[in-house]
Specification:
Immunoglobulin-like; elongated; four-stranded antiparallel β-sheet; 2 domains; binds zinc ion; alpha+beta
């Protein structure tokens, strides 16, 4: 039976107005803390990437049967208006950004599945306890896959291939959008992969697709991403990818090499493994360079004025019935909040006690409209749609 039973009870989260792109994060079976992490990560990626088209991400908090912490599959488009390279797959979020129009109306851009049996730390501050996995780190990593950090590589019957990933490869997980039929076409990411001697893996005169020769390359431990922006970000060297001797579907090729970028390295977020207590909140220059090479318009200095520095976050926005206030750092003294309408009239007020991380306000008695939540000297605009 291939039914996925977790499609009930999702919540819609939308992001702040400062972003250079808007990530619409929709969670399925999340908790308030889980939803806050999803929203926070969408906000952070929104600061890094420029796109006029909202990026629609659906995040499932689901049982991945202990195999992995997260799985991500992006929607895809190819041969769209303004496509930089023909006959190559782009993640739909990037295709939309390049085309300047939404090519997949009504379809999500990215599906992320996060294991609900792992011991997660769901704080936003990066103070990950040594016995927990940091959800922000993992979700930032998974979103990157959805933005194009994906090779569409596989090995079947000894033959390596690009562009033949099938729904059965991720069963019993089921996507919210039609599984892209790849027809043996390469992902834009894969067009930058080469071996030690500089032979490009998408050169079918050397490496037919599929072929035993490709499988040999996939397991050679000597694969590199050679795109101009990534190379500059990597001290003018090609970027070593993860290509272990035993092929790991889902890990090989679309990660940075673990031992080249170990924990603590600024580029460690996109390695295949994360340890307990490890915190990697920023994608790092190499991953951003790779995204640039794929075609993204990237704000390289976004981490400087990152939303993580802002003390408050509210979500969802627009809100209905409830809104949550998230304190992004620990409060040391009680804090007064006001909810005011556009005329400045105080409609509700209260106090947030120290050590509160997540604070819910019931909006049931308010009429629809624009309001502001004022905390300290900060006013956060919110649309209420009761
Ligand atoms: Zn990964």
């Amino acid at each position: 039976m291939k039914r996925f039973l977790l499609l009930s009870g999702y919540s819609l989260l939308i992001l702040n107005i400062h972003a250079q792109s808007v990530f619409q994060m929709q969670t399925v079976n999340g908790t308030p803390a889980f939803d806050a992490v999803a929203n926070y990560c969408g906000q952070k990626w929104g600061e890094y990437l420029n796109s006029s088209i909202p990026i629609k991400v659906r995040v499932y908090f689901a049982n991945l049967f202990g195999q992995t912490l997260g799985i991500t599959i992006p929607n895809g488009r190819r041969d769209f208006p303004n496509a930089p390279v023909d006959s190559v797959w782009y993640p739909s979020a990037l295709a939309n950004a390049l085309a300047g129009t939404e090519l997949n109306p009504g379809e999500d851009d990215i599906n992320i599945f996060i294991d609900n049996t792992a011991n997660w730390y769901m704080g936003l501050d990066g103070n990950t306890p040594s016995n927990k996995y940091d959800l922000v780190s993992v979700m930032m990593h998974e979103i990157a896959h959805g933005l194009g950090f994906l090779a569409l590589s596989d090995i079947n019957n000894g033959e390596g291939s690009f562009g033949y990933v099938e729904p059965s490869d991720i069963a019993p997980l089921v996507l919210s959008f039609p599984f892209p039929e790849q027809e043996g076409k390469y992902a834009i990411y894969s067009t930058f992969i080469e071996n030690f001697s500089g032979q490009e893996l998408d050169d079918t005169t050397i490496f037919p697709n599929p072929s035993i020769e490709l499988a040999t390359q996939f397991t050679s431990n000597q694969l590199y991403f050679n795109g101009p922006n990534a190379v500059v970000a990597n001290n003018n060297q090609r970027v070593r990818l993860y290509a272990p001797a035993t092929f790991a579907f889902g890990s090989s090729l679309h990660h940075l090499n673990e031992s080249t970028y170990p924990p603590g390295n600024p580029n460690s977020m996109m390695t295949p493994f994360i340890g307990l207590g490890e915190t990697e909140h920023e994608p790092g220059p190499v991953a951003l360079g790779i995204l640039q090479d794929l075609g993204w318009s990237v704000n390289l200095d976004a981490s400087i004025n990152n939303p993580s520095k802002s003390p408050w976050m509210i979500f969802p926005n627009p809100a209905k019935e409830y809104v949550y206030i998230y304190a992004q750092s620990t409060l040391k003294s009680p804090c007064t909040w006001l909810l005011v309408n556009v005329s400045g009239t105080v409609c509700m007020q209260g106090t947030i006690q120290p050590s509160t991380e997540l604070f819910a306000i019931s909006l049931k008695d308010l009429v629809s409209g624009i309001y502001f939540i004022k905390i300290d000297n900060i006013a956060l605009k919110i649309l209420i749609t009761n």
